[in-house]
Amino acid sequence: LTILGIESSCDDTAAAVVRGVAGTATILSNVIFGQTEAHADFGGVVPEIAARAHAEKIDHAIEDALAVANVSLSQIDAIAVTAGPGLIGGVLSGVMCAKGLSAATGLPLIGVNHLAGHALTPQLTDGIAFPYLMLLVSGGHCQFLLVQDHDKYTRLGGTIDDAPGEAFDKTARILGLPQPGGPAVEHAAKNGEPHAFALPRPLLGRDDCNMSFSGLKTAVLRARDDVITKNGGLPLAARADLCASFQAAVTDVLVGKSRKALMAARAISPDVNTIAVAGGVAANGAIRHALKELCAETETVFVAPPLALCTDNAAMIAYAGLLRLTAGMTDDLTLSARPRWPLDQTSPTLLGSGK
Ligand code: ATP
Ligand code: FE
Predict the structure, then answer these.
(1) Ligand 2: distance of its center to the CA of 298 in Å?
(2) Least enclosed by CB within 10 Å: which of 66, 103, 119, 301?
(3) What is the ipTM of this complex?
């Protein structure tokens, strides 16, 4: 099977071609047009700018993806598109474009949940079998998912406020470091002492798999102000210590809760023996290292897809579409774009739009 994937739910316009069967598929092309510059002056993604940029770039992304893959539309078996969750303007651009292509070519149309795309990536990259535990940690998401099949997910817990990527970005802002904050904080932390500041590990003592990161960034702000009051400024060494202490707190929470999530996953499906990560925060070396240690200790396999496939891309959407097509789950032209779409409800057409 050869699937064209389209992704436009946030600030990347992406198209990709994936070929193969469930469990062994190859990425023939994976084209991404970012919008970082378009939003740079606004300190975040501006939905109207994002929607316009998607509409402008999406045809181009698809043409490039087909050209790089060296396939024509006539060699494609289905068109998979992110139908949510995400910024509605962006999701709509993708869905309308996919519907147009489907109507013009007669190819099957498949609406994919963006989070399912992330959750299925470790199978695309590493061929791992179901069931597995997935930790999705990005700028906008933080959750533990038990992945039992391409359309069977159980959310075991997640953040009750900020996502860790957001906390990294805010911490960088508080400490005068550039955006995106994750890499900047990680880099600065290399020269710091992780125990220098006693920052909180919110909810870590609780038995559930929920997490909280907003208090942590407030604690960083307070610690920074204390340092400034005492020193009349923020010395580089103190900044490095704050970065290292912040990163250690996030790592402790993610690893401690991963341990609990593994137990919760095994209570539902005893043969879970893999922990996979996805999302931009999975790029963090300290977090990866600590998760690897947890896996060694619990005799679990650790899988971290290459970074380009951990963050938003269309190859994951094409692969999720391939699995849905294989299961005979296609959509028709009534497919709607859904700003919110919990992963445990996987069929976009059946459920219509809404929460
Ligand atoms: P989503 O895809 O959930 O809507 P997003 O597009 O913001 O959100 P990603 O592109 O997956 O998410 O990841 C970006 C986030 O990852 C940013 O918040 C960034 O700071 C963080 N990040 C990137 N590299 C690192 C790193 N080395 N350490 C920690 N965080 C990082
Ligand atoms: Fe994403």
Answers:
(1) 28
(2) 103
(3) 0.97
